[in-house]
Amino acid sequence: MFAARSGPAPNVAEEIYPGYPGLVVVGGQIRSMTWGFPRAMKSKRTGLPIKPRTVNNAREDKLATPFWRDSFVNRRCLIPVSAWAEAQGEEGRMTRTWYAVPGDEPFAVAGIWRPTSEWGDAYSMVMVDNCAFMAEVHDRMPTILRRDAWDTWLHGTPEQAFALCRIWDGPLDADVTTEPWAKPRQRAKVSSANLTSPTLL
Q1: Dihedral over Cα of 69, 195, 147, 201: its sign
Q2: Which is nearest to 121 in space by CA: 130, 131, 113?
Q3: Secondary element (H or E) of residue 74
Q4: Which residue from 133, 121, 109 is spatially nearest to 21, judged by alpha carbons?
Q5: Which residues contact 98 (CB under 8 A, 6 or more apart)?
Q6: Residue 46, burial from CB neighbour count under 10 angstroms (0-12, 13-18, 19+)
Q7: Which helix (H) or strand (E) holds 145?
Q8: Could you confirm whether domain 15-200 is CATH 3.90.1680.10?
Q9: For 28, which DSSP code?
């Protein structure tokens, strides 16, 4: 589907969480990378370095800032997705609502990546304003790329790629569930047959 080599089966879970390995398509390969760029943090009490914060989403209006710019200009990737989840409901009782592009095949979300000393190669998802369909749930959503735009996102100029960062105007399916938002994380491995269609959370 992505005209990419899979190589050795990456160790990823059935659901992908920030700070854990997920799948991206880059350089003609399907690769495992950590979801989220590390941002250096210091303890407010001691001033000493502490565990980095995971920055898993890049707003399209911030792509020209120093934190994101080099990755956006030089290292763009596709993120294969079958669905993504948003929290819905009142505080403390939030449940998962899953969104997907209609059809049986995974779709692609715009991503950027960079090597890090903390976690190895890491990627972040590019976000845009939400579409009307999900306006009551969240004010942002992933940048969904139509198939004929995949090559432009990967290989086009920064200006051409930025023009693809727009609100989704196609159909979406919503699956409103009773699953708690803070459901325990699954660590199960997936088979190589499922490597191009992970579920994204």
Answers
A1: negative
A2: 113
A3: helix 69-74
A4: 121
A5: 83, 84, 85, 174, 175, 177
A6: exposed
A7: strand 144-145
A8: yes
A9: T
Name the token pair of 125: 């998802």
77: left (phi over 0), alpha (psi -120 to 50) or beta: beta
Distance CA 28, CA 193 (A): 18
Q: Kind and range of the H or E element at 111?
A: strand 107-116
| Closest to 72 (Cα-Cα) out of 84, 64, 83 | 64
Q: What is the mean pLDDT of the chain?
A: 86
How much is the average pLDDT of 155-182? 94
For residues 78 and 200, the answer to whether their CB atoms sit within 8 Å is: no
3-state secondary structure of 153: helix
Separation CA 13–CA 152 (nearest Å)? 29
pLDDT band at 11 (very low <50, low <70, confident <90, very high): confident
